[in-house]
């Protein structure tokens, strides 16, 4: 016999090392029979699960360890691998004897004897709860960062659309869509101060079932009274605003400021977030996130409103006559072309009234240009007051004026012109301490479609009727129909 085949008297007895591993390994070990029922467990298994040999022997380990939140697909995967007598390894959620969940890296290995007969399953379980916790935290952080990135992209897109709005109506359209997208769980409203600043008027609302008062008083809102944004539902000391009817519902009130002046209020309310609704920690987390988003939105809306106002002021200046405040020739040419196209498309009438101050030159020659300017302003003031909202007074230059009468047939336009002529004739003006002569105007009326189909035709025919009125003695109104009769 070779020396190497002789047992070393210093070697421990057979099975000693296996016993050491079984006793001191930190991994739980279960040895089961071919029927998957446990026959032996090590001490680490008992330390992990709280189940001793008396609890587990003769039972399938999964029947004790798996619970309500254990992945059913993972359990079926283990059962199928065991039925097919093949090795399987996966992560699975188990439960201790006292119901505490813990994650394990489970490996189930079939064991065969020298004849190839399947005799046992060896299951090893390594506790990976700490790793899973870190993975879950990382996933939460990843999702939170993804949400923040999405919010940043939406805010940037919202900002782009807000600053692209050419009019207040376009701006409101963007606000409705953007706020509903950014904070979908909330209803909202935008209020703007009325001209007298004694009330705020509802100009836009959004959400599932918006129900907001049409007007609110400035003193009814804590945000307006305190001069800064107010969040109800986030602080231990808080008081509801008088304009809010649901007193227990969280909401935000955010002043809208343009050029340093508070011009309105954005109100956002979270219906369904009451104390008895969403869980407290979730409620606080969501509201705090939405508060940050709302503050950014309020700032962007404020800047956009200021931008639209400035753009409108500049546009208004370019389209208004500096002396009289009436629309100028540029505005008239563009607007009249649009309205004529609408009239043709919708088969509705449209009229032009050409207006000229009679003997205007004598006011300038006898009383000076200040007197002439006074006459023009007074006539313009009467033109602004004479008609409905569909009558647009314009100054084309010098003493030449035009009334663009949208949706108005010839007879009504003639009545408008006569009413204006009568009121002008009743003016009593003085300049530089001297009374001015009576002011009179002559008017010519042309109407679409009977008098002309193009703007150039209508303007030419209205001027022709105006000249006929002057030649006929001035201080009168003549329409294109009167010319055809004569």
Automatic annotation (TrEMBL):
Signal peptide: none annotated. InterPro entries: DGC-Regulatory_Protein, GAF-like_dom_sf, GGDEF_dom, Nucleotide_cyclase, PAC, PAS, PAS-assoc_C, PAS-like_dom_sf. PROSITE patterns: GGDEF (PS50887), PAC (PS50113). This is Diguanylate cyclase. It comes from the Bacteria. Pfam families: GGDEF, PAS_9. Residues 86-140 form the PAC domain. It comes from Roseinatronobacter domitianus. Residues 348-482 form the GGDEF domain. CDD domains: GGDEF, PAS. Keywords: Nucleotidyltransferase, Transferase. Its EC number is 2.7.7.65. GO terms for molecular function: diguanylate cyclase activity.
């Amino acid at each position: 016999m070779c020396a190497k085949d002789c047992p070393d008297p210093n070697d421990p007895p057979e099975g000693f090392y296996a016993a050491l591993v079984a006793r001191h390994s930190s991994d739980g070990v279960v040895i089961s029979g071919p029927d998957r029922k446990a026959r032996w467990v090590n001490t680490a298994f008992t330390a992990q699960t709280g189940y001793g040999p008396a609890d587990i022997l003769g039972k399938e380990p999964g029947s004790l360890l798996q619970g309500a939140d254990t992945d059913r697909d993972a359990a079926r995967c283990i059962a199928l691998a065991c039925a097919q007598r093949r090795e399987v390894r996966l992560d699975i959620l188990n439960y201790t004897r006292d119901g505490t969940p813990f994650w394990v890296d489970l490996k189930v290995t079939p064991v065969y004897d020298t004849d190839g007969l399947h005799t046992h399953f060896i299951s090893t379980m390594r506790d990976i709860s700490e790793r899973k916790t870190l993975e879950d935290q990382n996933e939460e952080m990843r999702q939170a960062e993804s949400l923040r990135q999405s919010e940043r992209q939406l805010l940037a897109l919202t900002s782009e659309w807000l600053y692209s709005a050419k009019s207040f109506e376009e701006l409101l359209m963007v606000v409705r869509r953007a706020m509903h997208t950014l904070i979908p769980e909330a209803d909202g409203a935008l209020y703007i101060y009325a001209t007298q600043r004694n009330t705020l008027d509802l100009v836009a609302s959004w959400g599932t079932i918006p129900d907001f008062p049409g007007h609110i008083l400035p003193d009814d809102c804590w945000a307006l009274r305190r001069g800064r944004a107010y969040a109800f539902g986030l602080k231990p000391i808080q008081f509801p605003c008088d304009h809010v009817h649901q007193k227990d519902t969280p909401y935000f009130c955010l002043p809208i400021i343009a050029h340093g002046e508070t011009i309105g209020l954005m109100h956002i309310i979270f219906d369904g977030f009451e104390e008895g609704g969403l869980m407290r920690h979730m409620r606080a987390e969501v509201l705090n996130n939405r508060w940050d988003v709302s503050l950014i939105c309020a700032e962007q809306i404020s800047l956009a409103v200021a931008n639209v106002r400035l753009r409108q002021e500049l546009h208004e200046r370019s389209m208004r006559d500096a002396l009289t405040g009436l629309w100028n020739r540029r505005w008239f040419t563009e607007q009249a072309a649009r309205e004529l196209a609408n009239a043709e498309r919708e088969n509705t009438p449209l009229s032009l009234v050409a207006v000229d101050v009679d003997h205007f030159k004598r006011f300038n020659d006898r009383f000076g240009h200040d007197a002439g300017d006074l006459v023009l302003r007074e006539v313009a003031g009467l033109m602004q007051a004479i008609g409905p909202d569909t009558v647009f007074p314009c100054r084309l230059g010098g003493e030449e004026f035009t009334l663009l009468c949208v949706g108005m047939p010839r007879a009504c336009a003639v009545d408008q012109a006569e009413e204006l002529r009568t009121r002008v004739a009743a003016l009593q003006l003085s300049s530089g301490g001297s009374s001015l002569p009576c002011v009179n105007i002559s008017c010519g009326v042309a109407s679409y479609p009977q008098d002309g189909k193009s703007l150039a035709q209508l303007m030419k025919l209205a001027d022709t009727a105006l000249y006929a009125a002057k030649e006929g003695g001035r201080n009168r109104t003549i329409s294109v129909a009167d010319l055809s009769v004569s």
